[in-house]
Amino acid sequence: MAFERVGVVGLGTMGAGIAEVFARAGLRVIGVEADAEALARGRGHLERSTGRAVDRGRLGEAEREEILRRVTLTTSRDDLSEADLVVEAIPEILDAKVSLFEDLDRICKPQAVLATNTSSLSVTAVAAATGRPGRVVGMHFFNPAPVMRLVEVVGTVVTEPGVLDEIAGLARRLGKTPVAVGDRAGFVVNRLLLPYLNHAAMLLENGVAARDDIEAAMTLGAGLPMGPFALLDLIGLDTAYEVMCVLFDETRDRRHAPAPLLRELVTAGLLGRKSGRGFHGEPPVRRESER
Ligand code: 3HC
């Protein structure tokens, strides 16, 4: 199938980034949000991200306008009826995703592929909510989506193999590298990355080292582009916490139990960049012994 018209449902940080990736590759994008306010926030993400690329001389103003013109924003899911592919990027609530996929199955043409950008929930569960489980896949992008070069292509026991090949081909067309992964909590990247980030929160809370020392240790000592707390703030502490809960549920491995400090920050509404404060921001999160 030639993917020319794609839908993105949910225009938060990830959804807006994914919409931008498609539009930059020349595809027509229909971006769907629940209401006018959320739609305006989604438009803001797109404008800021492409505006920054212009400021850095990576994109011409005319090219930026062309990219933005390729994206149609709407609050009506019915506008997805002609899409060849729809990528879902709504919050990680399984019931909400299942109900969305039931809707998409009714609205979208039978040959359309339905994809979820879920970080850790079951792709099989959303596929089973549709009458086309063979054409439902996971298409997992990484934050920031316009920059990160990987897409995890998640197949289930019922995915048609041809569909996985088509989605992998599309990922290459977007300038990304696809990797094929099975439908297990966290797939590959989050399965390995999130326990490490969670462990960093435990070291902080147990007073093993201070936040900035842990950041310096992992950037300078392990050569990572960001320390664990800067990365947690980028990913969103709520998302990180949800992934850890799913990993723990599936594996029952106590090494995957979410760090109490992570849960505490999420409960307090300190979610990282999206809320203005997380592990970084004022006042800083300190070791227990310093409180
Ligand atoms: N949106 C769009 N573009 C962005 C961006 C954003 N949010 N943040 C940075 N960029 C672009 C910049 O414009 C710049 O592009 P240019 O070279 O064309 O000008 C480029 O990325 C590099 O940015 P900077 O020079 O500002 O900063 P860095 O060199 O420090 O790179 C980074 C920033 C790419 C975020 C880098 O620090 C990094 O790779 N961090 C690790 C990110 C990571 O691990 N992500 C995966 C998280 S796990 C996940 O998402 C899964 C989910 O399910 C939880």
Helices and strands, in N-to-C order?
EHEHHEEHEHEEHEHHHHH
Individual helix count: 11
Q: Indicate the structural class.
A: alpha/beta
Outline = globular
How many beta-strand elements? Answer: 8
Mean pLDDT: 95
Q: What is the straight-line distance between the termini?
A: 58 Å
Alpha carbon gyration radius: 19 Å
The percentage of residues in β strands lies in 5-15%
- The CATH topology of the largest domain: Rossmann fold
Fraction of helical residues: 40-55%
Number of domains: 2
CATH structural architecture of the largest domain: 3-Layer(aba) Sandwich
Bound heterogens, unique: 3-hydroxybutanoyl-coenzyme A
Protein name: 3-hydroxyacyl-CoA dehydrogenase family protein
Domain 3-hydroxyacyl-CoA dehydrogenase NAD binding: 6-183
Keywords: Oxidoreductase
Domain 3-hydroxyacyl-CoA dehydrogenase C-terminal: 186-279
Keyword list:
single chain; 291 residues; alpha/beta; Rossmann fold; N-(1-d-carboxylethyl)-l-norvaline Dehydrogenase, domain 2; 8-stranded mixed beta sheet; 11 helices; 8 strands; binds 3-hydroxybutanoyl-coenzyme A; 3-hydroxyacyl-CoA dehydrogenase family protein; (3S)-3-hydroxyacyl-CoA dehydrogenase (NAD+) activity; oxidoreductase
